[in-house]
Write a structure and sequence with these properties.
Layout: H1 2-17, H2 29-40, H3 49-65, H4 75-87, H5 90-110, H6 117-198, H7 203-231, H8 250-259, E1 264-268, H9 275-295, E2 301-308, E3 311-319, H10 334-345, E4 349-355, E5 358-366
Parallel strand pairs: 1-2
Antiparallel strand pairs: 2-3, 3-5, 4-5
Helix pairs in contact: 1-2, 2-3, 3-4, 3-5, 4-5, 4-6, 6-7, 6-9, 9-10
């Protein structure tokens, strides 16, 4: 604003002090006023570019019609034309060209100087420069806006991805906490109940139950400590910390439940699973067995893991407790949800429900594909 105001003052002063040039009249106060008005119009060129261009073109025509030289007042017109092309759409640019052309035509009609092809060439050149420069400015502004919009969209997408990753990681850790510690606490409670009931008549069994409670509790604390190390910001732990459980640990899992007084039968056939899938199968069996001993008071818990074609089938069954003496089923069903999510993440599926008087949990997990030579692909 201050720059344009200064230019207007300088233009008016120049019109007052510069001598006349043949065949034009000597400039004076009217010429100074016209020059100042022409420059001051540029203050609103970004708000009303067509009106700015119309006024500056009219100043050029009026100056020529007054017998004055337009060498100074023509520049705001070209700046107005440049602004129309830098800011506007096709309609605004077409209007700007029309107003500038009318200004040039009026100048040619009223100018006192002799017709000079060189002057006409100069006008055409300046006209073209204003148009090309304005269009280039608009193109750069459009490209910059598109780039900024793309960067904002990418930033939002990264934020959404980070949030989704955080949600998935929280879900994974919640499943680990629920399955590993939930099973340990369930076994501890069962063993403590058994030990309390037989302590008076069989102290040795009660002592063994306490030892098993201690062992399971230490294992649960180790799981919790490993999880906390993974969560710690400065930890060097990786997902390898969670790849410990596998099919080989099913017998130990069953032994812990047998020690609590439940009969568990385990059958494991020849299966080919990746480390991740093996861990998933273990966690599904662990949660299924936990549900069985938590929601029923008697009956054999059967664990069958076998491979059928390219699918590993996992079944955990137990008799449905119809006495009503067992603990109530979990209201939120988190265990079944976790098992289904684990199977889905490995590309498999899970079914749960009563079958022929038993409650069966059946999971299918894709087996590890082998190359024709017998090695892993």
């Amino acid at each position: 604003m201050w720059l344009i105001t200064g230019l207007a003052v300088c233009s008016a002063f120049a019109e007052l002090v510069l001598p006349a040039q043949e065949p034009y009249r000597s400039p004076g106060v009217p010429a100074a006023v016209l020059a100042a008005v022409s420059v001051l119009c540029l203050l609103w060129r970004h708000v009303v570019p067509l009106i700015t261009l119309a006024v500056t073109s009219a100043v050029v025509v009026g100056t020529a019609a007054s017998g004055l030289s337009v060498w100074l007042v023509q520049w705001p017109t070209w700046i107005g034309l440049f602004t129309c092309f830098a800011l506007g759409d096709r309609r605004l640019r077409a209007g700007g060209c029309a107003l500038a052309a009318l200004g040039v035509a009026g100048f040619l009609v009223f100018d006192r100087g002799a017709f000079d092809p060189t002057a006409l060439f100069n006008i055409a050149t300046i006209f073209g420069i204003a148009v090309v420069a304005g269009d280039a400015t608009r193109s750069r502004r459009t490209a910059a806006a598109a780039t900024a919009g793309k960067e904002v969209a990418e930033a939002r997408e990264r934020a959404r991805s980070a949030e989704q990753l955080l949600v998935e990681e929280r879900g994974r850790l919640a499943r680990e906490l629920h399955d590993a510690l939930g099973h340990a606490v369930t076994v501890i409670v069962l063993q403590a109940a058994v030990g309390r009931r037989v302590h008076a008549r069989n102290p040795a069994f009660g002592h063994d139950a306490l030892e098993r409670i201690e062992t399971v509790g230490r294992g649960a604390l180790s799981e919790l400590d490993r999880m906390l190390r993974v969560l710690h910001p400065g930890s060097q732990e990786t997902d390898n910390a969670w790849v410990e459980p596998s099919l080989a640990d099913l017998d130990e899992l069953a032994a812990g439940v047998r020690a609590a007084g439940r009969e568990v039968h385990v059958h494991t056939g020849q299966v080919q699973l990746s480390a991740s899938a093996g861990r998933t199968v273990y966690r599904i069996v662990q949660e299924a067995v936990t549900n069985a001993v938590r929601h029923t008071t008697s009956g054999i818990v059967r664990i069958d893991v076998d491979q059928i074609a390219d699918q590993v089938v996992v079944e955990v069954t137990n008799p449905i407790d119809s006495s009503g003496d067992g603990p109530p089923a979990s209201a939120d069903g988190r265990g079944l949800v976790n098992m289904g999510e684990r199977a889905r993440l490995e590309g498999g599926s899970l079914e749960a429900g009563p079958v022929a008087g038993d409650f069966r949990i059946r999971a299918t997990i894709p087996a590890l594909r082998m190359s024709p030579s017998g090695s892993r692909p």
